Amino acid sequence: MAVRHEIKSQLAKLLATEDLIVEHKHVETACFNVHTRVLTLPMWERASNIVYDLLVGHEVGHALFTPDENWLEKVAVPPQFVNVVEDARIEKLMKRKYMGLAKTFFRGYQELNDEDFFSISDGNVDDFNLADRANLYFKIGNFLDICFDSEEKVLIQKIAEVETFDEVLKVAEELYLFCKKEKEEEKVDDMPIPPEVGQGGESKTSASQSQPSDGEGSSGDNVGESDPQIPQQTNQEGESGTPVATDDPEVRTADSLQENLQDLVNSESMENVYVELPQVDLKKIIADNSEIHEDINSFFSIQQNNVPSVNIYERADRHFVEFKRSSQKEVNYLVKEFECRKAADSYARATTARTGVLDTSKLHTYKYNEDLFKKVSVIPDGKNHGLIFVLDWSGSMSRVMTDTIKQLYNLIWFCKKVSIPFEVYAFTNEWNRPMVDYETGDMIRPMDTSLAYEAKENLLSVSHEFSMMNILTSRVNGKQLEHQMINIWRVANYFSDQYMVGYGIPPRMGLSGTPLNEAFVTLHQILPKFQRENKLQKVQCIVLTDGEANHLARHVEVQRRWEDKPHMGRRQLTGGNTFLRDRKTGNTYNVPYGWHGFSDLMLQNLRDNFPSVNFVGIRVLEGRDASHFMKLYYDQYSKEYYKIQNDWKKLRSFTIKTSGYHAYFAMSAASLSQDAEFDVDEGATKAKIKSAFIKSLKTKKLNKKVLGEFISLVA
Predict the structure, then answer these.
(1) Closest Cα to residue 139, out of 105, 165, 167, 168?
(2) What phi and psi values does residue 214 have, to the nearest 5 degrees?
């Protein structure tokens, strides 16, 4: 029933017209915390849809209209009586605000009446006190004939007319005093008549008779004895008496409704768990760009000094220069497409306006032309763009790291040509390992095991090992950027062919697991910081990865026998009964079972928080992984599945539009590694020339298709 709960939560938030937090938990009754703005609803899994909607609408009414104040300081009235009047008021206001709710309340209360939720079938409603009858009148009065005398009608009319909570308290006090007086009068009427005392002090009731009679009196030994059913009280003089009981009246129909509503709750269902994102400290999460390259430079320098006669990086650096030269056509294509799309967009948004200045060239036409003012075409300024790249630095990327870096570099050179600021982050669990001196092997800095946030119950867990390495940035000059790109190119080449390159890499630059979801958590702080510092209006977030990430864990308090205070532990998230709650947007997301589903959920949460950001995924696939990846998003018998299959066969690429990304580009690793240039050896046969030509055309077609779609999103 998790989906149903989510639907009803959305209904509550829509009705509330505010960022309301809705929780479904194992509670007996609904309640609203006016301080935290959390509406807690029981898991009414046995309720019909119409009754569920009624209950949700009622509680939202309290959320909207019941103020956050301690009304007990104003009036000394039992809460039940205030609730009777307040329920009538908030339901009236809800039906006034949402006219469609009138039908929901009518049908919902009809069903509750038919099922005797107010427990009135065995009694006579006319015998109920005024508070009970008022409660029934304003809830199920359409289905009952409830009688009021003239004095009672005045109070009923007052309840119907209340508009403010202060008026509620005033009328509730009147209702309570009326019912209290009514009960006291009933007590007096029900009291037994005291026996008459005859002459000589004898009672007219016979001592030998167990029942009252008009017989002779008895001995005076029983004088002063009271009826055992009447509470006995001693006055100030020490005399025994039988005063009137002054206990408060009750609203039995309200109690019955609450008790019967509890039967709608499924106590055997799993308890819902609500988790939230931590607010991480970026200083602890982000590995600084300069620190990273200082570490790489130091390691590479020591390696080279150990082999002074040979340039151990010559082969990798030569391949970098060759790739840079060959990629310029693709980069120029990106630039051209970007500028064309920007110009077309600006033209489409251009407006023409009168200036208020006379056009002297049109004055001679004043007799038949009213348009004598100069006009100006207003073309809105283009938006400031920025790009953030998130690179998968996991072990499975080793085979395709160089090809992925090639795509990344094409986009970076594009950014440089059109003056778009950018940042490149690689997510890893390796950078935070202990730092050592590469010459001596001595430890310089141990691993920091502290978290980047304060751990609390049901916060998502981000490991102390996790880091976002800021490997490339537009904040450095062109020469520095070139050097940094060569550094990362050498590292990528090592992963692709570590047995042949002839050099090593810094230990902290090693590949790790796939903390993709942790990266999504940190983007909540990275994106606004990047946008604010560069004064950007439009940001693209590009994620380059080859696989899925695990579910995150959540923090839980665990009381261990040997400890006085609870220990903050971790527990893996489970799909179905777990919900991600975002207090900023008020949205709640049902956590799915699948790994890719959870990442899509995290992306949707990012999109809801940053509507001006485009999130684009680039998935580098090995041939054997393509079919599995397609089936994650499309039914294998659907038209969409056959279409992307054909795209894959023809172009070795396809685009998914149903994931958490705005667009998810899948690209063949083998195709990316092929050179787009038409190059054959001298003296090659016709067959080899033909094969090379076809391969070149396919590669160019693939690149242009993917890059064209990408630019359409950016521009």
Answers:
(1) 105
(2) -95, 20
pLDDT tens string 649-660: 887 888 888 899
3-state secondary structure of 312: coil
E strands, 35-140, are 38-42
Instruction: For residue 412, give the amino acid letter.
Output: I
Collapsing DSSP to helix, strand or coil, 172 comes out as helix
DSSP state of 459: B
Q: Is the dihedral of CA 317, 320, 321, 322 positive or negative?
A: positive
Lookup: tokens for 8: 């009803």
Give the pLDDT score at 368: 56
Q: Taken in order 702, 705, 707, 713, is the CA torsion positive or negative? A: negative
Q: How does DSSP classify residue 197?
A: B
Q: Is the pLDDT of residue 361 over 90?
A: no
Copy the structure tokens of residue 49: 């849809």
> What is the sign of the dihedral through the CA atoms of 49, 50, 52 and 56?
positive
Read out DSSP for 577-630? SEEEE-TTT--EEE--SSHHHHHHHHHHHHHHH-TTEEEEEEEEE-GGGHHHHH
- Return d(Cα 205, Cα 217) in angstroms, integer: 5
**Hey, where are the domains in the chain?**
2-189+250-271, 282-297+384-675
* d(C-alpha 611, C-alpha 528), whole Å: 12
Please give the angle made by the CA atoms of 453, 585 and 42, to the nearest 5 degrees. Answer: 95
CA neighbor of 702 nearest in space, from 639, 624, 649: 649
Q: Which of 209-213, 312-316, 497-501 holds the top average pLDDT?
A: 312-316
Q: 3-state DSSP call for residue 226?
A: coil
Compute the residue count for the chain.
715
Question: What's the CATH number for 282-297+384-675?
Answer: 3.40.50.410
Q: CA 297: distance to chain centroid?
A: 42
